[in-house]
Design brief:
- The chain has four helices and eight strands; from the N terminus they run ααββββααββββ.
- It has about 250 residues and is an alpha+beta fold.
- Strands 1, 2, 3, 4, 5, 6, 7 and 8 form an eight-stranded antiparallel β-sheet that branches.
- It is rod-shaped and about 155 Å long.
- Residues about 1-10 have low confidence and may be disordered.
């Protein structure tokens, strides 16, 4: 049990005596009364400052995080750009190498095609040497003679140790030259070059000439004479080149 408490109530006389002994309360003007201050203001200000501090810190954190993200993103972009630039340079280098290789291949192909065209032309028109042995003429009554083949271009190339006379004669012209000699109208050195000729050279030491009249005609002879002893060095060749119709003395 809870112990009983005794409450003593002062008597009336005691109360009056205490009242009489208590000093009178001083009177204060309402205008001199100190303003009443709220005891909640500091609490509200502290809470407000705390809120703004938290907000500012959060904003700084967000800003720092955003800057960090931007930095990371920028770094990633730069790395990606460097990688793309490197790849582009590599591709450019490969393209240049391929272009160079293609140009080289095209040049080789062109050269090969030229060789094929040349070989095709040579097969269609082969060139053959027919006379290259040096021979001598003892004097004005001697001559060197050779036939000019039909269907060929005749490449006449001669050199000699002294003056010589060279003529390309048709069969009829050669016959006239022989009759000139037989009739004693002149010696061989004279008659072979003064009885008519398709082409002729008198008193020369070299000849270089392409004769075409035999390409469609088998009626020509080469005759070489000299007034004195000489040695003739020939380098005669022919190219197969048949004419589509008769040429020269055969027309």
């Amino acid at each position: 049990m809870t112990p009983a408490m005794e409450v003593t109530t002062p008597s009336t006389e005691e109360a009056n005596q205490e009242t009489a002994l208590a000093p009178a309360e001083p009177y204060s003007s309402p205008f001199e009364t100190s303003p009443v201050r709220s005891q909640w203001a500091p609490v509200n200000v502290a809470r407000s400052r705390r809120f703004w501090t938290i907000a500012l810190a959060a904003a700084l954190l967000l800003t720092a995080g955003g800057v960090g993200l931007l930095y990371v993103d920028d770094t990633s972009n730069q790395n990606a750009n460097r990688a793309l630039t490197s790849q582009n340079e590599q591709l450019t280098g490969r393209t240049q190498n391929l272009t160079t290789a293609l140009t080289t291949t095209q040049n080789k192909l062109t050269a090969s095609q030229d060789q094929v065209n040349t070989l095709t032309g040579e097969l269609a028109h082969p060139t053959l040497g027919i006379w290259n042995v040096p021979q001598s003429i003892s004097g004005p009554t001697y001559y060197l003679g050779a036939g000019v083949p039909d269907t060929f271009t005749y490449h006449l190339k001669l050199s000699s140790t002294g003056p010589m006379s060279v003529s390309i004669l048709s069969i009829h012209q050669f016959s006239d030259a022989v009759q000139c000699v037989q009739n004693r109208a002149g010696n061989t050195n004279y008659c072979m070059h003064h009885s008519g000729s398709a082409n002729g050279w008198l008193g020369v030491t070299s000849v270089d000439f392409d004769f075409h009249l035999a390409e469609g005609c088998a009626a020509y002879l080469l005759v070489i004479t000299a007034a004195g002893p000489v040695t003739v060095t020939p380098n005669v060749s022919v190219t197969y080149n048949p004419a589509s119709s008769a040429t020269g003395a055969c027309v």
